[in-house]
Every structure is written in C-alpha cells, then in structure tokens.
Amino acid sequence: MASQPSQASRASGASSQASRPVATAQSLGPYAFQISSKPKLFTCTVCPDLQATSSHKLGKHNETPSHQGNVQATQEDERRRNREAEEGISRAGVSASSQAEERSAESPPESNMDWEADHPASDSCRPPSPHPSSSQEGSGFPQTTSSTIFAPYQPPPVKSAYQSAIDNIFHPEGAKEVEDMYDWDGIKGGEEREPWINEELLAAEIRKLEGTDDGADFFPFKNKQVFLTSLLRQLPRHHFSDDILKILLAWVKGMGVVSTPALNAIKEVEKSIYKLVGEGQGPKRFEGAHQHVFYLNSLSDIIRRQYANPRIRPHIHHYPRRDAGLHNYCDGTFINHNISQDLAPPMVELPFGNHAYVHEVVLVSSLPNIVIWVQRWYLGAHDRLRGEGCLVDQSGERFTLAEDDNFDFSIDDITHCGSSVKSIDVTQIYLDDEATEPLPSPNPIRTIANGRVVHANSFLIFSDNASENISKKWGINYVYYITNAALHRSAQHLESTIHFIGSSPSALATEMAEEVLRPFNNPSELVEAWDCTTRKDILVLPSVLLKAGDNQMLAEDCSCSVGAASKPCRSCEYGGTKEFKVSPAGFLSLLKPGKPRTPSQTLDTIEQILSLSTQGRISEIAKLQKKTGVRDRLSESISDSFLELQRKLKARRKKTVKPSERGGGKRARREESSDSKREEDFDADDESDDDSEFEGLSDLEDKSKEERDEFFWELLEEAKKKTYRNPFLDKRGLNIHLQSPTEILHTILFGGGKYTCHLTFKDHSAQIADYFIAVFESLNTSGLPAGKKINASYLLRFHGSLVGREFRVLMQTAAIALRPLVGMELMSEELWEVWRALGDLGAVAFVSSVAAEDEEEYLKRLDAVIQHAFLAMAKFRPAQLINGSKWHQLAHAPEDAENFSLLSLLSTEMFEKFNAVLRGAAIHTNKLARSRDVTTTLNRQAVMSHIISGGFFKSEGAYRQAGAGVLSFMESSSLFSRMYGIEGAPKAKPGTCSSPASSNPLPLPPPAIFVELGLTDHRPLTQLFRRAHNFTAISDDKVSDGDFVHVKAKCSKIATSPGLHRVVAILQPTSTPPPSPSKIFQYTFVITEAFKRDKVIHLDYKMAVYRPTSEYFTFVLSDIDTVANVQHDCISQECGIDAVGGVTIEEREETAIRKPSLSHNHPRDDPTKDSFILNSHLIHSYPLLYHLYPRIPRAPAPTNITNTAATFGENLGDGFEEVAEKRAKRPETKKETAAQKKQWAEKVKEHNLLVQKKVNDMLPKRKGAGRAPGRGHNLARAYQRKWREEGGGEQSGSDGGLMTELDGYDDEEEERDEQAEEEQEEEGDLYE
C-alpha cells in the first residue's frame, strides 16, 4: 500500500490549495483502492495482501465474496467508531443550538473540496466535520480544533439533481473525496503540485452516470456535456484529434466547469450509441482477388438510415416520371424504358389497399374483359401513378403476351390484380407461342414481401483515386461513394446524402468493386427498413443507375484503354489507325457515336487474352488489345504471370536445347526473340531467370507441347474459381458501357477548357497580359461565380492549375473579353472561335432544369453546340481531337442527357468535394490500418449526422428519435447543421431586402417616376420610402442597383414591359406607412430602365445587342425573374486602355503601384446610342433567358462539315511530321550494346571536363578562393544539353564546336540585355 503524505507536508501547502483528504475504505465501498508508488500497483484497502497490476484485475477482485465480506465488516466497524465519537463529543459538553445539531446530524457528509470551491476562505471558516474520529492521524482530514468545531455551520449551495449526480463522480455517496482518482506520489516534502487524475476510474464513474441535464432529454447521450463533446468529435470537415479534445476539456475544466466529462467516458458512450443507432455490424473486412485486405461500410445500414430520417425520406421518389421535362434522374429515358424490369419499381399500393406487382395481371375498369400483363409503373401527368403493360391473348388453350399491343392505364382504374383475377389461369401465361414454360406467377417478390411495401431505389456509384493527404504529397487511395438517385437534386448535393462505402491504399478499384456491387441488382435479397412517413416496415430493392467518375477511372471500370489508344472510347468502337483517324471518314466518325460496346463482347476479348497468355503469344495479345481497345487490369495479373512463366520456360529451353534442334528457321527465332524482349508486358525483371517461384519448371520443360498446354489450361481454370476479371462486366442488369455517361467536369472544363486556356496564355506578351488584366477586372460580374471582381492576375499567372470554378468564369467571359484582341491582331480568329464555341457549350451543358415543352429543342441545341465545338477545334488544333477520348466522348453527351436527364446531374463535383471529408479522417490515423480506420470514422460521422438530424433508430424494441434537448439544440444552431451537411448554405428568401446601414433615407429619383403609382399623399417621397441595398429575386439571385434583370412576361398590373431592364433604385416602405386604404405603401418597388434589342446581332461578338431607352418602369419584387450578365460594347464604343492605370489596393490599402485599366466610353449627348452585349454564355440563368438569346448556333451545315473533314488530314500533316522527326532523334537506348554505352559515357565525361574548365577560366575569380560556381554550373549544363542535341560532337570534334561559342559568351549576354531594355521601352510607349 502506498504511504500517505505526512501531516506536515499537507500543512505546508495549505495556503495555496486545500489539502487533499484521503477517503477511507469504509466510505469508498467496493471501489476502495489506492495507486501505489513505483512500480504502480493497484492495492485493495480492505484486503491489504492483494496487489493488482491493473484496474481491470482489481475490479474482478472486488466482485469476489471474500472482498464483499471484508467491506461489510469494515463498514460496521466504522459505524461503531462514529457512534462512540458522537457520544464522546456530547459528554464533553459541546454547546451548540439544538436546531444546528439536528441539521448537522441529518445532513449527509459534504465534500470539503466542493465547499472550498464555493467558499475560498481560510481554514477557520471550514465547516465542521460530522465525524470527529476522522481527525486521527492518517485519516486524510485536518486536525479538529475548538475553532473549527464551534465555527458556525454554513449549508452548501442548492444544486440540481444533475449537478449532484456529476459531483458524485468525484465524491461517491458516503465519501469525502475519491482519493484513488489522484496520484499523490508527486506530493512530497511540501511540494505544491496538481495530482494526476486516474482517467480509467473517472471514465468508469461517468459511464455509470445516468439522467438528464435539469430535465432536458439528451437521449441517446447521457447528458448535454457528453452530447456536445461528441458533436465536436465527429465534425466531418473539422475533425478533432484526441490531443485537441484533451486540451479543450482541460480548458473547460480550468474555466470552473466541474461537470466536464472525461475523454474516455465520451468514447465509451459513443460506442454504445453506434451499436444502438445503426452502426449494425460496422465496417466489414474483405479480401480481394489479389489478396489485398480492405473494409467497406454496409449498404443496408445506409438505406435504413435514409428511410428512417424525416429530413431525407420526403425527398425520395420511387417511380420514374414521364413528360415532365428534365430535372432529376427519374426523368431520363433509361430509368423509364431501358432499365431491367426486374430492377424497376416492383409494386404500387392501390386505393382499396391491395398491392399490384409487375409481371402479374390486372383488370381495369375501361377494359373489364381484357387481361393486362403489367410491365412497368411510372408517374404521368400531375404526378399520377400509372401502369404500362401488354394485353394477354388466348391462342388455343394457352395464353400469350401480345408484345405489340402495349396499354397504358391509371392505377385508379384497377379493379382486380394478381390472384384475384379469375377469368384466366394466371399460372399458365406464356411469353409467346414458342415458349415451353409459363411465366412465373405470382411475382417472387410478393412472396418475399409478405404484405410489406417494396420500393426500388437506384444509386450512383462513384470511384476515384483520391489523395489521402492534405499536403502536396500524393497518397494514392481508391475510394467509393454512393448517393441515392431517387432523391431530388436539391437534396443530392447535401453532404449528408453522400455516403462513404470504403477505401483502400493497396487494392485496385476493380478489386474492391466485387464487394461494392454485391448488394445491388439482386431482387432475391431485399433490404429491410422502417419508413418514418408510414411508420411501417418496408423492403428496398437497391440497383445501380450509373457509374460516375473521371474519364480515366471510367475507362478502367469498362476495361478499356485510356489516353491516345487506337480504340479510346469506353462507350463505342470509335477509332482505328492514325491513317484512318486523319482521313475524312475518320473525322466524320469522330462527330457521332460509333457501334456500341457490350459487356459480353468485352468479356469475350478478355477470355481470348487469357487464353493467348497461356501460350505465351505476346505479339498476338498486343494486336488484339490494339484492335479492340480492351485492357482489364484485374485479369492482367493472371495473364502477366502466365507470360512470365512462359518466358522463363523459353529461357531454360534455350540453355538446354541445341540451336539445330530448335527448328522453325529465322522467323520462329525472330518471333521468339521479340516475344522475350517485350519488357513492358511483364511485371518481373527480364534479367532474372530464377525459377524458384515455380518448383516444377524443370519437370514442365521435359513435357510435350500438348502436356504443357494442358498444364497451363488447368492453372487458368484454377484461377477462374476466384474473381479474375472486371466485376462491372459480370453484374446482372448493368451495362457498364452504357451506364458510365459523359462527365462534364473532366470532359469540358478540364478537357477543352483547360487545353484552350493553356494555348491562350502560355506564350502571352506583356501587351496581352496588360490588356487581359484590365479587361477582365472591369467586367460586370453579375450572375457569375466570381465575386465583385475577377482576379485576372491570378488567372493569368496560374492558368495551368486552375480549378473548375475558375474555368467556369473563363468560359462565360472569355469570348467577350478577348474579342478585341482579334482586331488588334494579337489573337487568331480560330482561337477566339474555340472560346466562343466552349462558351456556348458550357451554357447549354450546365443547365439545371429544362421544361417539358423545351426538352426537344434543348437536345437539338446541345447537339449543335457540340458540333460547332468540334469544327472550331478542328480548324485551330486538329491534333487535339484525336489525342485521347475526351473530345469524342462529347459526341455521346446528347444521348447521355436523354438517358440520364441533364448533364449537370452527371457532374462529379459533389463527390470531389467529399474528398475533403475523406482527407480529414485519413490524416488522423496512424496509417497502419488506413482502410479500417477511415471507414470506421466516416461511418460514425454518418451515424452522428443521422441522430442529430432527427433520424429514427430502434431502441428497446421501438423506433424513437433523439431527445428533445438534442433536437432543440440543432434547430437553434444552424452552424452545426451546415457543418454536418444537413443543411446547405444559408439563403435569403425571395423578396428579402437589405437596407443600408444608415437609418436616414437616401436621395431618390425624381418624383415624376412615381406618377403611375397614384400617390396622393403630399408628404415627400423620402418619408414614404427608403432605398434598399439589394433584394433576392425568385431565382435566389442578389439584385443590386445597376444590375441588369429580366422581367417576366406575366408581371403585375403596375407596369407591363417584359424583357431586359437595368435597376435604377430599390424602394422599401418606411416603418410607418401612411394611413391609406390602398396597400401601395406596403410593397417594395423596383425602379428600372428598359433596354431595347437591336434587330441584328453584333457582327464581332455574335451576340444580341441592347440599347437603353431612357424609359423608366416600376415593378414589384415578384416581377423580377433573374439577373442577366450584360457587358459593355467596347468595340463599337471604341473603349481603350488607360496607360496611367488605376490604383492598386493591397492589404486594404491604396499603394503607389499602378496597373492598366479599361476606360469605357459612354455617349454623353445621347445615352440611347450606347450599346451593351447580352452575355449568352451565362450558365445559371440559361432556362430563363433562353428566349432573349439569338437562336444560334443551329446544327452546322453539311457542307461545312464536309469541307472541314476534307482538310482535316492536311492540317494534321505538319504536326505529325514534327512528332515523327522528334521521335527519330531520340536515342534508341534499348538497341545499344554495352560497349556503345561505355564509349558514350566516356565521351560525355571528357566533354564535361573541357566545358567546366573553359567556364572556370572565363568567369572572374572572387576575393580569396573560389569562383562563381552557380553561374558557371548553369552555363555548363546549358551547353552540355545543346552538345547532346547536336549529335554529341561526332561531326564537330571532341567538344562539338562549342568551345568557340563559350569565348563570346560575355559579349552575347550584354547584347541580349541591351535588346531587352529597348523592347521594354517600346512596349511602354504603346499606350500613349
């Protein structure tokens, strides 16, 4: 047992902190133990002979009968001593009031530590101890004196039940203080030192804590403190490490909060919560085909949480929708017509309570005598449920389906369904006359459901090779995310609806795909869930709608080649040789989708490659891959191992078989030699002929060719018993080539947009840079995601590393901003046409909604802008079209938009943003079990998000939500809701106004503008209205003074002038409107100036031209649709660059630095002569402003396409010849012999010495020893590179003729410096 601190040592520290009392074994009960000195052993105070090495072992000892008996005996002895002490005090004649004595005797013993916290006074004011016997030596309490005994008793402050429960952690019932929570070994010799808290015991006590915080319910958390700490621990984007939390908890405790929970207690509570709420089995361990271990979250748990969450469940729509435009995935053609009937919505609930299933028969009221075989359910007009099926015909004694007689009906017309149809035998319906077995009836899902509702949910699966590091260090990590395609698009972009499935730094994406896809597309295995809207148990059928990802990842998922392959497209068989691609026929095939790929054809090619690999036929494998474009990474490991084994076998045969016995002549030996030298097809080292990996290689060498072929075939069959090829190709109901649509983020923004940006700014001159900065920073940014001003300097400097948001800004503004450069002959017309085509493409491709009446027109326009983009790039850089697959993938975009709704839905930006959550979890692991730790962390974050958002979970046999305290806190704290992705960014409601900071009304336009308002009040207008700063339009746009807006056609009766207007003033009524029966003073008005469109488009910008009319109108806020982006017509008005420039602001201060600025010219005599350009490349307002844009471009004329195709190969000729020449100059290192390499190395070494010596002699010496090493080193390296490029001195002597050039280096450097100064002076005069 550890020795207690002496009385003197305690007394020495009494001035700074109260002495720590030591609890007795009688007061501690079963938790009586102390922490021994080194080595630290847990010693039982009741059983002195016992010493345990851990609290766990001591806890087991405390449960033994012998310990319990000792505790009872000790407690009885303590009570006896207390009675004797009380009798002794009364006999000693202690005088006190009877009321105080009764109160002192009845009240439970209070903790001195609590009293000291509330009453920081000296020991003379300490309350008396109710047990005088405890003042004995070693008891842990101070010696009682007459002053302390007769001190007036002060009752402790009143505490709540919750606070009392918290205090019980430190002071269990009947104890003065739990001494064992502290390490008193450090307090020796009067040393003042804070004791160390025993976290294990503290956590154990907190775990036993139950109850609520002053009546508030924080279920499933123990109390509010645990809830708030857990809320901080699981923040997705701001993950708290244990060290930070410990610091935070210590800070809170230092602020005086005595009820601060311990970190261990929080962890233990969270574990019970995760098990209770829906963590289920948690992340499960899997082993891939290559024996890589990874962990995945459960899809069933994700689905259960979605249906049990009242925030998410109302946004889930189970049925496809027809003739409603393009808004969500349910509007696409694929989910309406092409998805497998087994994966489509299986049933509907009829008005009379029955369930009607697909693949069963129904009777409808409109055709009472006709039986209909149901094939699909869908939403028709006004979102009414309808069914589609074919009629059942009777052919002789059997019933067959009339496939050509499709019938559409409403579910309200169904009178009988399933087995209730008695007019025919529903078990004897055949597909056609040739069918031998009847169609299964009833639907197998009906039997599985057993009366429960069954819903079908389609999901998006996203995979990526994301980095798990926040720094620039790249850590490869394959990840899988999913989101529910049945959700409305407004809910899909919330972070809480994107679910993490799993990740692995070692397993391939296709290796993980088998387990990721396993729960999908399986009608026989449904997910059991609970619907919070109906409060009933349901079943869910999950299926895969599409596979999302960047182009490289999707090509891998489709087992296709990537990059500049002969067959680069993952969706069709476009491609061929370079000669075909540059031909007119090849160019025409680039513009349209080719023959679709199918999973069965791809699988057949993979099987052929595996079969050829068993024979070691490398050249034929290369030809087959080039011909088909198929390359499966998962099966490559098998084929590579077979090829390596064949190579080793051939190498051994060469050593043992004589040349005369080999046979086959030169051709066979040449093929054998070429096969063995294909190093890129093998993972093993060619120089290693070690056959230790295969012990039977020597035996196999002696076998015949037939026996070897049979042996390899058996190995292949053994390998096929596991997953040996791409699981996406084998999945039931999944056509991966069709269901991996065009992804516009990487195809448009990071494809054509990034390449064109690089070509525009890579070799810009100083004049172009000044003009670019001046023009872009003067652009009107209304409606653009660029803030108040575009940071043009950043775009110009870092044009090679921009992100999607910045490319969007460039695509919407570059055509207008860069057009004057064409007239200045600083930019080619072809390059500007590419920017214009990309702007048109971006405006159409990123549309977020299309009405039903505009759907056909939208698809035609999308196809037209893609064709124009092809033609523009073909005239500017034709080689870019055939290098890779991004440009051809755009040819599939119209078809993908029709199949899967809008292209903006197919963008992977929402998944790319979630990578930040992944990195936040990954950097807080020890990197030893990254897949398990990251998966567990993100799963717990999802569980926490489900709890705090009001989701239901099963507890004690019933579904319930979190307590009222949790829900009320989240309702009052929108910050945490946004940080957990439950809510989006806060948006102002339409019609909300923002007034200036000053309460005084600002000057208003002339009163004549308000005549149409019919104002009869004689007070000044400034007393009736005040000027607002901005307001929120119907489209959630912020509208301010000077912005251009669109007024809808059906506006209020105040004014009828739809079209383009410019806001002059926003008038908000004052707080005290005049008494008037009219409500005119209760509205907020917008004073606008109307603009009129010219009859012809601008010849340079190719956009609509608008001019001011000086006519003013008044509208209410509901008349304003959206903000339009309008730019000044700088070409017609001859705007120029101000050479003096504007003031540069740095650190919010004006500096003396000047930079060029654009000076707009506005006609002063007649404002109506001014002209403006309506930017038709604006993305977000395209559906509302579509009718204002010129209806161009239409589909290109056939003659234009034909002419471009005819000259396509000619434009490519020079480029291909240059590439061929560069490749010819490359040294063929593979064919060089060892002697040639050695000779080359000696020549280079000798030349380097000569160059370095010449440079050192030429450069001036410094004072002392040494020269200018940096300059000489760089100079030498430059001439060495030039020497190698010119042939390494073979034609011009040992030094390549460069020694002479070194002699004149200083003169040339001075001439270049003088020439650069003259050019800078000339450029500075260009603006004068």
State the main characteristics.
single chain; 1328 residues; alpha+beta; eight-stranded antiparallel β-sheet; seven-stranded mixed β-sheet; 49 helices; 40% helix; 15% strand; globular; disordered N terminus; disordered C terminus
SSE map:
Blueprint: H1 7-12, H2 25-28, E1 33-35, E2 42-44, E3 51-52, H3 55-62, H4 65-91, H5 98-106, H6 112-118, H7 146-149, H8 161-170, E4 182-183, E5 196-197, H9 199-207, H10 224-233, H11 242-254, H12 263-277, E6 284-287, E7 293-296, H13 299-307, H14 333-338, E8 347-349, E9 355-357, E10 361-364, E11 372-379, E12 385-395, E13 398-410, E14 414-417, E15 429-430, H15 444-449, E16 453-467, E17 476-484, H16 489-492, E18 498-504, H17 509-517, E19 527-531, E20 536-548, H18 551-557, H19 578-581, H20 584-590, H21 599-614, H22 618-628, H23 633-656, H24 659-662, H25 665-676, H26 697-701, H27 705-719, H28 727-730, H29 744-761, H30 766-777, H31 792-797, H32 804-817, H33 819-823, H34 829-845, H35 855-876, H36 879-882, H37 886-889, H38 893-900, H39 909-922, H40 930-948, E21 953-955, E22 958-960, H41 964-972, H42 974-979, E23 993-994, H43 1021-1024, E24 1025-1027, E25 1030-1032, E26 1038-1040, E27 1044-1047, E28 1059-1069, E29 1085-1093, E30 1105-1116, E31 1120-1124, E32 1126-1128, E33 1136-1146, E34 1149-1159, E35 1172-1174, H44 1182-1185, H45 1198-1225, ...
Parallel strand pairs: 13-15, 16-20
Antiparallel strand pairs: 1-2, 2-3, 4-5, 6-7, 7-18, 8-9, 10-11, 10-14, 11-12, 12-13, 16-17, 17-18, 19-20, 21-22, 23-25, 24-28, 25-26, 27-28, 27-31, 28-29, 29-30, 30-35, 32-35, 33-34
Helix pairs in contact: 9-12, 20-45, 21-22, 21-23, 29-32, 29-34, 32-34, 34-35, 35-38, 39-40, 46-47
